[in-house]
Amino acid sequence: MRAALKTEDGRFRVEEIDPPELPARDWVRARVRVAGICGTDLRHWKKPDAHLACHVVGHELAGEVVETGPDVTRVAVGDRVVIETVLGCGHCEWCHARQYNRCPQLYPTRTQSVSRAYAEYVVGPQHKFYRLPDHVGFDDAALIDTYSVCLHAQHLSKLSIGDHVAIIGAGPIGLGQAMLAKASGARVIVADTVDHSLEVARAVGADAVVNAARDDPIAAVTAFTGGRGADVAFECAGGDAMPTTLPQATRMARRGGAVVIVGGFDAGETAIPLEWQRIQMSEIRILPSASFALHDIYPEQGQVLSLIADGTLQTQPLITHRFPLERINEAFDVAQDKERTGAIFVALEI
C-alpha cells in the first residue's frame, strides 16, 4: 500500500509498504479515503524526532471497510465508516473503567494500528468503527475526531445554558468548541490572530470575535461579559502559543469560573508563570482535557457523529484545502502557514 512515512528531519516520504493484517478475529481493515492534519501533527512538522522516523502517523480519518474478521458483527465489507483512534491497552484500571483516554499505554497502543491515517489501509477492533449515514461524507467524518475532543472538553467544563464562553484559538478545535457551546445555549466570543479564521468563527455562530494581534483579548472578553469575565474559558491554541494563551485564559475567567486546557503541550516540562494568588483567591478551576472517551454510557465520538448528521455541527466551512497523499509535504506547509494561506482544516484524499 502507499503510505507517508516520517523522515529523520520531520517531513514525509511516500513509499510502498506492506498493508496491515488483521491481528484478531474481531478486527476490521478499512481503506482510508480522507485524513486530516491535526495540530498535534503540526507540532512535529519539520522537527527531527527519532522515535517517529519511518512510522506512519495521523489520527483523523474516514474510509470504507474492505475486510472483517470472522467475529465482526458491527460493520460489514463496503460500509462507509469513521474510525476512532483513541485506543487504550484494554487491560489497565482506566481501560476497565472505560476511561481509556487516560490509559498509560494509550500512545504506544494506538500508534500500532488505528493511529496510522496517512496510508491506504488501517486496522482496528470493531468497536472503534462507526457507520456513516449516506449524507455524511468522508471529509465531514474526518472532523469527527476533532469535534470529539471538543465535546469531551465541554463535558468536563460543566458549561450550562446562558453561560458566557471565551475561546482562544479559531482552528478546528476552537471552532468546534464554539459550535458546541452555541448549541448548548451559551454566548461565545472567540479570539485568534488570523482574520479569515475569525470570519469563519462568525459564520458558524460566534457572537463576537477579537483579533488578539490588534486588540486586547482580555479587555474584549471583559466587555463582552459586562465586566464579570467568562464563566468558562477554553484554551484551544496550544503548542508554542501556550505561554501566552494560558495566562490569557486565566485572566478571561470570572471569579468562580473555569479554564479548560484543550490545546496540547509538547513532551517534557513546560514552565508558564500564572497569577496563582488571583487564581486561588478567585477559586478559578483549571481543568486539563485529554482526547475523549465516554460520557456516562455514551461514546463521545458516536455523539459527535449524530451532531454532524443532524446539522448541529458544521464541517464544510472549516475544510479549506484538499491534497492527494503524494503532496502531503505541501499540505503540511499550507496547514502550518495559516496566516498566509487561510488554512483551517486541511484534508488529505488518499
Automatic annotation (TrEMBL):
Keywords: Metal-binding, Oxidoreductase, Zinc
InterPro entries named in the record: ADH-like_C, ADH-like_N, ADH_Zn_CS, ER, GroES-like_sf, NAD(P)-bd_dom_sf, Zn_alcohol_dh
SUPFAM superfamilies in the record: GroES-like, NAD(P)-binding Rossmann-fold domains
The UniProt record lists the keyword Oxidoreductase: yes
Reported cofactor(s): Zn(2+)
Enoyl reductase (ER) domain boundaries: 10-346
Family of this protein: Belongs to the zinc-containing alcohol dehydrogenase family.
Record-given protein name: Zinc-binding dehydrogenase
Organism: Sphingomonas corticis
Organism placement in taxonomy: Bacteria, Pseudomonadati, Pseudomonadota, Alphaproteobacteria, Sphingomonadales
